[in-house]
């Protein structure tokens, strides 16, 4: 009997820049205060990548080198690099290609995935397909964003939420039952106008007019996005659990996208998973978009045990949302 191949995470790395922007710092820029921000979002501070002339690729490289070391992977062994990012270094070439050149992955192909805050899950599932078919043995999945590059620090609705950071995982074949077991991914463009960067694409190319109108930054209608996120992120997490006959007691960890602590709490409540088994780092990192889930896995890695059931869940602009059920593949 041929054993089923699953894509297992064999190494995890994360990185956040050293520079912090606290709620007190934001009080000097916009009309807000620490109590207002923390009570509504759960965020105390966020990290900002301040290296002049450097972008998402440079920022996430420490995490990638860490993953290669942890998974005993030489750069030339990497088959495929997929990078989930909303802040690519350029429109083209892809940040995944820049990463490949930086590490010397001369045998790999790669591309970027853009699904806003759900992008890492979309990239993880995409990468897993190449492993499950037997096509590739080493797939590097990166989720990272330099959100400070597209934030208006005079907009109270968005500047309090986002930070910079990212992480990466290595996917390799597993036949012991551990790895990515199932996923449900969804998207609906009905919500496009509620969470959007209005200019910079082909519909509204850069111009003096678009720059002056501050259309090259994140624009969010918070209350609408919150309602969609609370419902859909919680529902899809429950859906993937029910599909696999899982109850809260079966789940070692819920790994939610770190958008807003109230959304995380709603998802935990809906799944029945207690908050002590929910990965949280929003207080110190804010919303790093594609970076939140890999950063959580990286921070909690030492608490993970081989065979642990994890539910990963996210919601993002697009609207996009999804959940992944996986069994952790190694002991730290």
**Alpha-carbon distance between the termini?**
31 Å
Write down the Rg: 19 Å
Structural class, by secondary structure, is: alpha/beta
How many separate structural domains?
Answer: 2
Write down the CATH class of the largest domain: Alpha Beta
Largest sheet: 5 strands, mixed
Percent of residues in helices comes to 25-40%
Low-confidence stretches: none
User: Which percent range describes the beta-strand content?
Assistant: 15-25%
Task: Give me some keywords for this one.
11 helices; alpha/beta; five-stranded mixed sheet; Peroxisomal Thiolase, Chain A, domain 1; single chain; about 30% helix; four-stranded mixed sheet; globular; about 325 residues; 2 domains
Please render the helix and strand layout as text.
Elements: E1 6-15, E2 20-22, H1 23-27, H2 34-41, E3 45-47, H3 56-70, E4 80-84, H4 95-103, E5 109-113, H5 119-132, E6 139-146, H6 156-159, E7 164-174, E8 179-187, E9 195-197, H7 208-212, E10 218-220, H8 222-243, E11 253-256, H9 261-271, H10 282-285, H11 292-300, E12 309-316, E13 320-327
Parallel strand pairs: 4-5, 4-6, 11-12
Antiparallel strand pairs: 1-7, 2-3, 6-7, 8-13, 9-10, 12-13
Helix pairs in contact: 3-4, 8-9
In short:
The protein is of the alpha/beta class and 332 residues long. The chain has 11 helices and 13 strands.
